[in-house]
């Protein structure tokens, strides 16, 4: 009996492994590509926090019925552009200098995905109106620094140049998606953050409306392009909000842990997600990275995020 037992145990383990593999394959995701859109610096009270949805008509009326909205989504880290984007694409909170000279410590989903699946650099892109967002394409981790970086199209001519208008970013994004057909993409729109910092309330609101239009254009692009249709998951969120009125200088700025700065909106659409569904479940920016890693089958070695299982059908 002692001689038979190891053999039986080996057979048992092989059967379990085969069963687990079959279960994994039977639960395979339809998502093959992921696009993340960031409406930079919109306060929740002017987006899904406004019951009239007057500034986000496309998100609320056209896109929400096709996907999932979470009304309790937060940036619990530093509520600045670079740190917010880093949390979004590394799955980790980190205090990063915000001018464009600081680089995340941890590798991004772009680097990890490219390495895991042996993807070319043009298969992943960081596209941004703000030049400094380019820093999230790299990291300081010695095992990953300068390796497996995504392609970049940021600002007028890359990191250290000038910011550009969102219309130019939208045109660049469409051209890149059409020409290179990348599978993992981040797009940053500078509005309404730029107009908020200018302290012009009307322009701040207009910036939300215009970005809502660009988001709708991107959604329609996904639906109409044969490479992306039915296989693409879309995440839409903010990197941070803004101060509530009565806190510091109000909507002009952001950067602390007030409700206005931390509360951001969340929308997701894709072939694996529920439709016409609204949650009020506490989730955070790093959870997007964790969920993408789950769907695109790669590991994040260190992460503050958790897979948002409530999104799935």
Tell me what you see in this structure.
The chain has nine helices and nine strands. By secondary structure, the protein is of the alpha/beta class. It has one domain (47-182, 193-280, 292-311): 3-Layer(aba) Sandwich (Alkaline Phosphatase, subunit A). Strands 1, 2, 3, 4, 5, 6, 7, 8 and 9 form a nine-stranded mixed β-sheet that branches. It has helices spanning 4-26, 57-63, 81-90, 109-117, 166-180, 193-197, 201-224, 259-262, 286-296, and strands at residues 33-39, 68-74, 124-128, 151-154, 184-189, 232-237, 263-269, 277-279, 283-284.
Tell me the count of domains: 1
Biggest beta sheet summary? 9 strands, mixed
CATH superfamily (homologous) name: Alkaline Phosphatase, subunit A
What's the number of helices? 9
Give the amount of beta strand, in percent.
Answer: 15-25%
Low-confidence stretches: 1-26
Radius of gyration: 20 Å
Multimerization state: single chain
Please report the total strand number as a whole number.
9
The CATH class turns out to be Alpha Beta
CATH architecture annotation name: 3-Layer(aba) Sandwich
